[in-house]
Amino acid sequence: MAFTRKIISLVVFHFIALTPCLGQQSLSPAIERQFNKIENDILTAAEAMPENRFNFSPESLHIANSNLKGVRTFAGQIMHLATDNILIWSAVTGDSIRPDIEDVNGPRNITTKKEIIAYLKSSFAIGRKAMLTLTAQNAMDMIDFRWRKLPRLDLAFYALTHANEHYGQMAIYLRMCGIVPPATLNDK
User: How confident is the model at residue 185 (pLDDT cuts 50, 70, 90)?
Assistant: First the structure.
């Protein structure tokens, strides 16, 4: 009986001692799987598009009864996605953004496939850094983002959802150019 009480006391003591640490645990494992998947899908899609098609837009196909006037090019999709990654994830960390970002379409001096992919990769690096800062304790902290206050965790979900939406557009653009998106090659 005394031994059982000692065991129970020991378990309770460890639980009480560890509880504050649990509140500090990173939420990144819960987000990381989705982040890694979408990062891989987007980067492989961006790399799959030949440089001479990087400025492709479905508008150039002149599809009957379509309204594609002014839609973003493939490069424009990537620049917008990377810029919003930077804006969203930097809000999570509180870090400042690049001074050459004037709007959601990114710096205008980034134009080549190599530069655009480097910019995209840098946006995912910012996202990875931000993801690692999310804890159970700060996930619901309200932060300013685009004229409103949102919890940090909402912004993480928004960044992932937004990236996934643009990946879908990129995949369609690739297929319109006769390219199978690399992420779908192993899906059978």
Answer: confident
pTM: 0.81
Q: What is the dihedral of CA 42, 45, 50, 52, to 10 degrees?
A: -50
Here the tokens at position 156 are: 């993480």
pLDDT digits (tens, 9 = 90+) for 147-162: 889 888 889 999 999 9
| DSSP assignment string, the chain | -HHHHHHHHHHHHHHHHHHHHHHH-BSHHHHHHHHHHHHHHHHHHHHHS-GGGTT--GGGG--TT---TTPPPHHHHHHHHHHHHHHHHHHHHTPPPPTT--STT--TT--SHHHHHHHHHHHHHHHHHHHHH-BTTTTT-EEEETTEEEEHHHHHHHHHHHHHHHHHHHHHHHHHTT---GGGTT--
The whole-chain average pLDDT of the chain stands at: 85
- Measured between its terminal Cα atoms, the distance across the chain in Å is 59
Q: Among 118, 126, 136, 135, which residue's Cα sits nearest to residue 87?
A: 126
- Say if residues 105 and 119 touch (Cβ distance below 8 Å): no
The answer to whether residues 162 and 174 touch, using CB atoms and an 8 Å cutoff, is: no
